[in-house]
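Quick one: co-fold with 1,3-dihydroxyacetonephosphate.
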Amino acid sequence: MRRPLIAGNWKMFKTIPETVTTLTQLKKNVADVHHCEIAVCPPFTALAAAWGVLKGTNVHLGAQNCHWEEKGAYTGEVSVAMLADAGCKHVIAGHSERRQYFGETDESVNKRMFAALKGGLIPIVCIGETLQEREKGVTFSVLETQVKKGMAGLDARQSGQIVIAYEPVWAIGTGKTATPQQAEEVHAFIRKLYADIYGSLASENVRVLYGGSVKPENVSELMQQKNIDGGLVGGASLEAETFTKIIKYK
Ligand code: 13P
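Sure, here it is.
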């Protein structure tokens, strides 16, 4: 049985005091939650303070990106060891905003994914098609390339450990959610593709999250879909009360 994961991606929002206030409330709200894993990915500057609030609770800490080298002259980058040191358990790799604005490619996503695994973090590898690609009817081939290149080379253990996040770019921050049926169709495709590459055991174990305008109003129907194992939540994870409703989707 795959354990659902509800993760909040805070993107470039929140100062340290704002982080502490939100997470202090969130951890109280969800202390009684057992049906899913919970993670929050604040900006780098707030990670240490977030860990101060979350250590020992059922809310895990994640980061939004990592570099693939262990250390070195890479101005502006952050290593996996630094993130682990700050308390992180997860790290997002290849978010569409990084692909779109910062030149992230399937090759660099792959390097980040392996660095995370090597350093003991769980990578949340993001894939998803743009509106143009969906309208052209190439959604499945785009996703296939992203999975085949971005997630290439995993061994048997690693292939069940990573988390995949399907985030249709047209649904991110737009208020347009994929319908549960649309999302399920893609999730089922991803799981089948993953089985073809890594075998049925890995495919049964790998968690595939949905991301893109997840809200308290649509989360439970999304979570009822067979191949949706959680959510990667942007805007609606910024407020403790709203994110709590999403986490308590059951
Ligand atoms: P929204 O939930 O704001 O649409 O963002 C989704 C996302 O990009 C999470 O990584």
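If it helps, DSSP finds twelve helices and eight strands in the chain.
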